[in-house]
Amino acid sequence: MLRTLLFLLTVTSTLYGQMATEPTAQPTNLIFSNIGYTKMTLSFTPSVGGADGYIVLKFKASSPPAGIPEDGQDYGEGSWWVWRQGASTSLNDSNLDIGATYTYEIFAYNGSGNTINYLTTSPLIGTQATMVDSEAPSIGTVSVNPYPATYPGHVVVTATITDNYSVWTTLLDYRNGTETSFENTVGVWNRTGDLFSFIIPESGVTKQGLFYRIRTSDISGNIESMMGSIPVFFSEGTVSTLSPEGGAYPIGFPSDQWRMFSIPLKLDNGSVSSVLADFGESGNSSWRLFDGSNEVRSTDQFKLGQSFWFKQIIFPAGKQIALGSGRTASVADGIITLRPGWNQIANPFTFSIDWALDTDAGNNVNIKGPIAYDGSKYIGIGQTSGDNTPFTELKPWDGYWVYNAATTNQILTIDPSGAIGAAKSLQQSFADADWRVQITVRNDKYEDQFNYVGAAVDASDDDDRYDLPELPTIGDFVSVSFDHKKSGKTMQNTIDYCTIGKKGYSWDMQVASNLSGENVLSWMPDRVPQGFIIRMMNVSRHEMVEGNEYRFRSENMHYPVRFKVWIGTEEYVTKMTASFENELPNSFELHANYPNPFNPETRIRFDVARSGNVKLKVYNILGQEIITLVNGYYETGRNYSVNWNGKDQLGRPVASGLYIYRLEAGKIAKTKKMLLVK
After folding, report:
1. With CB atoms 3.0 to 4.6 Å apart as the test, which of 170, 339, 441, 470 could cross-link to 492 if both were Cys?
2. Please, what is the Cα angle at 298 between 295 and 300, to 5 degrees?
3. 109 three-class SS
């Protein structure tokens, strides 16, 4: 019986195994090293007293779930939470998630199979995160083949793109200049290491320019993009005032009319004589071209971003211009240097440019504009031309005035790639005034509507951001401007605002024209304070302006007609008007000379009741003219004076005696006597 029991115990021990001895201690000193975006190394110190091996549980969390391994269960790697099992104390983990946190729990054990015995108390636990990828891929050098692109034809764009881990997706979008968003996308055509190549098809290479955007991302979702432009080469005759559409002169150039003019291509031969070859030699009977007030020579060059005054006479209205070979502008060609004062600029691209969205002018308070010319008047952003078309964009072939208020050169950037963002236009800038009055003058051919007076919180009675000097003129014109004191000198402004909060304001205004005839003056108030009234006086004629429209004549094309403008409370305007009128003479007056008798010099004073040409002459008692002391245009005013030194027109002293001096102004003549005593 005893022999049978021993046999059974022996068989049971053989079949099920004897449970191994439990380790006396857990491993210690868990260290993480070689930590990367998707990998790390674990190392630890073996158990004191030794162990047959270690089971490593791995959790994607900051702490392990409840549970311990069971003795006699040899789990094996990949079952339950077991990541590694064995005697190694240095382990490499890979294929981890970027920026994820992992917890490792390590148990020592002895034995194997169904005899395995775990030490389950106080396991070695450590937590570590992989590196966080917060850096987007980097887009480096971009090359284009061919450069410039050739119309028609496709183009290959190759970019160097790198990432600290791995580039995941990469795309290229493209559009032409008339499109406001990127609607066309191509994937990677070829990849060699860090070089990614894309093909823009022939349909994407147009006369309206070519813009692209490269978009790339990594596995962590970090995104990078870069925009650029590709100039497009055109053969001779491809680009004209008719094509592409959207230019400033779709029906050709007008005849015998000054217009602003520019070239929207970087030509292989941009000489004036080449571009305007069809118009013949320049001259008063063919065509004229001016850079501001300077006539342009036939050997001068057309440049991107620059405009000129142009008038053609030799052809009837509708003459077109076809350009020679050249390329469209790149974004780099949109960088324009503005000199202090007025600058004639142009849109360098073959498509229209949105001033507010595609330029950085709104970020520079010194840049004011743009202002266009429609053949009869200047117009600002938001105003309408003669054909009732609102001025909102810079068109190819046209020109524009932009003012630089700084004393140093300023940079204007025109970038239609979409990299600039919204800016603030001049129209928005002067609309910021708390209130304003627009004053317009017109005659039967020309008009000037771009004139404003008013008040704003941040304006001053000296210089401020609103002040805009009078625009340059060429040819026949009519214009309104306001006297503005600057550095002790009087200059003419087309916009002049004052500090807000006063009971009233006054401006000295003039209307100039090189045409004689009737003019019509009108004004339009905008947000003028309640209780304020507007009153004007034609100072040159000593005549109050009545109604909302005033007709007057320009009788001397060499001198402007002077006006006084008052805007304020009725009390203020009435008081200022009366005071000003009291200062003006009601009639032409010739005053007695002083001293009289005199030797050798005397002073003669006179008043001018209406602006015009005035003559003051001296005669002897025989009626012979001795000398002309005054012969010129005088504004309405009192106490003009001139000295006579007792000499004739040739500078010879005259004899003692009685002399007559005579004042002539139009049909008015007045005389007085004086005595020279030696």
Report:
1. 470
2. 80
3. strand
Q: Provide long-range contacts, Cβ within 8 A and 24+ apart, for 192-197.
A: 194/140, 194/160, 194/161, 194/162, 195/158, 195/159, 195/160, 196/158, 196/159, 196/160, 196/161, 196/167, 196/170, 197/156, 197/157, 197/158, 197/159
Helices (runs of H) and strands (runs of E) counted in the chain: 5, 51
Residue range 281-290: mean pLDDT, rounded:
90
User: Within this chain, do residues 48 and 177 fall inside the same structural domain, yes or no?
Assistant: no
Please give the tally of structural domains in the chain. 5
Q: Are 272 and 302 in contact (CB under 8 A)?
A: yes
Helix residue ranges per DSSP H, 159-271: none
Tell me the per-residue pLDDT of 502-559, one tens digit each, with 9 for 90 and over: 999 999 999 999 988 899 999 999 999 999 999 999 999 899 998 889 999 887 778 8
Residues 368, 402, single domain; the answer is yes
Q: Does residue 374 share a domain with residue 515?
A: no
Around Cβ 64, how many Cβ atoms within 10 Å? Answer: 17
β-bridge partners, 563: 509, 538
Q: Which two tokens stand for residue 293?
A: 């007030």
Q: Residues 460, 398: one domain?
A: no
- Does 669 reside within a domain? yes
Chosen domain end from 234, 249, 271: 234
> Domain containing 161 — which CATH number?
2.60.40.10
Q: Specify whether the CB–CB gap between 470 and 479 falls below 8 A.
A: yes
Burial of 158 (0-12, 13-18, 19+ CB in 10 A): middle
CB 434 within 8 A of CB 466: no
**Are residue 274 and residue 405 in the same domain, yes or no?**
yes
Strand partners, 96: none
The whole-angstrom separation of Cα 324 and Cα 282 is 20
The sheet carrying 378-380 orders its strands as: 341-345, 400-404, 367-373, 378-380
Q: CB–CB of 404/367 below 8 Å?
A: yes
How far, rounded to the nearest angstrom, does the alpha carbon of residue 133 sit from its chain's CA centroid?
A: 37
108: domain range?
16-129
The answer to whether the beta carbons of residues 626 and 649 sit under 8 Å apart is yes
Q: Are strands 532-538 and 561-569 parallel, antiparallel or unpaired?
A: antiparallel
Cis peptide, bond prior to residue 472, ω within 30 of zero: no
| Number of other residues whose CB lies within 10 A of the CB of residue 193 | 7
Among residues 562, 473, 478, the alpha carbon closest in space to that of 517 is found at: 478
In a domain, 544, yes or no: yes
**Where residue 619 sits, what CATH number does that domain have?**
2.60.40.4070
* Rounded Cα gap, residues 138 and 223, in angstroms: 9
* DSSP code, position 333: G
User: Both 513 and 635 in a single domain?
Assistant: no
Q: Is residue 498 part of a domain?
A: yes
Instruction: Note the pLDDT tens digit of each residue in 248-273.
Output: 999 999 999 999 999 999 999 999 99
- CA-closest candidate to residue 528, choices 495, 568, 571: 568
Last residue of a domain, one of 583, 599, 631: 583
Q: In terms of domains, do 504 and 383 share one?
A: no
Pair 182, 213: CB distance under 8 Å: yes
DSSP 26-82: --EEEEEES--SS-EEEEEEPPTT--SEEEEEEESSSSPPS--PPTT----TTSTTE
CA pair distance 41, 59, nearest whole angstrom: 15
pLDDT one-digit tens code per residue, 218-247: 999 999 999 999 999 999 999 999 999 889
Task: Identify whether 243 is part of a domain.
Answer: no
